[in-house]
Specification:
By secondary structure, the chain is α/β, with parallel strands linked by helices. It has a single domain, classed as Rossmann fold (3-Layer(aba) Sandwich). It is built from eight helices and six strands. It has a six-stranded mixed beta sheet. β1, α3 and β2 form a beta-alpha-beta unit. α5 packs antiparallel against α6. The chain starts with a helix and ends in a 15-residue tail after the last helix. The C terminus is likely disordered.
């Protein structure tokens, strides 16, 4: 991926900004082509609250895999009631029907390849459709999520189809204590699954509670822990496809 000199200069400027400044800049410079894309975990919810104060009206997008926990759907409804409309992207019906017919509803147990295929149909492809509508993508990635994410930049260009878009992780250097403090101070709605031991929330079955000594993403696809180690990704944040 080749980034032009002007783009490099912009990256330097944006990487020096704090979260509030990044939200304000994105809305002013890109309007409805800037959006938060979130799965409504705590970091994403903090971003939405911050945005509502410094860049009100910025779009909020999410991928509904059609297999989320009941608590997550309730939480999404609560966030929408408080902060405004959420654009939901779902799997392509024909693609989903074909996958289930060929491999079954629980194919992710069979092999790592089938788990990744399920994530492609349910998450990555809807996410790519969402990203077609944006030039600036705000994400809730943090460096303390896992050692695999420890070098995540605050702002970077990523390939989306035949173009580059800005991918911004405004809270990339926040730790969990800072997130929790913001949630408490600003009364940000919180997914009830956190009270049940979850530290990373995705689909039913594919995300489970974690123990205190475990990596935050250890509960994802737990049956593959020995294989994956700390590299627990669905595909959205790997490579050029760039939640």
């Amino acid at each position: 991926m080749v980034v032009a000199e002007a783009q490099e200069t912009l990256l330097e400027r944006l990487n020096a900004m704090d979260a509030d400044a990044l939200f304000a800049w994105a809305l002013e410079a890109h309007g409805d082509r800037a959006a938060i894309v979130t799965s409504f975990q705590d970091t994403g919810c903090v971003m939405i609250d911050m945005m509502s104060k410094v860049a009100p009206g910025m779009r909020v997008l999410t991928v509904d895999t059609l297999r989320l926990h009941a608590e997550t759907y309730a939480h999404m409804d609560a966030m929408e009631a408080r902060y405004g409309a959420i654009e939901r992207f779902t799997p392509a019906p024909a693609r989903l029907k074909k996958m289930v017919a060929q491999h079954g509803e629980y194919l992710f147990f069979d092999s790592k390849a089938k788990q990744e295929y399920c994530c492609t149909i349910r998450k990555t492809e809807p996410n790519q459709r969402a990203l077609e509508s944006v030039d600036v993508w705000f994400t809730g990635l943090r460096r303390d999520h896992s050692s695999f994410r420890v070098d995540t930049p605050k702002v970077q260009y990523v390939e989306q189809g035949d173009r580059l878009i800005l991918k911004i992780a405004p809270l990339v250097d926040w730790d969990q204590a800072r997130i929790d403090a913001y949630v408490a101070e600003n009364d940000v709605p919180k997914n009830a699954l956190y009270e049940k031991g979850f530290t990373s929330i995705g689909c039913v079955i594919c995300s489970t509670p974690t123990l205190p000594q475990e990596d935050k993403r250890a509960g994802r696809w737990r049956w593959f822990n020995a294989l994956d180690g700390d590299k627990k990704e669905c595909g959205i944040h790997i490579g050029g496809s760039g939640i």
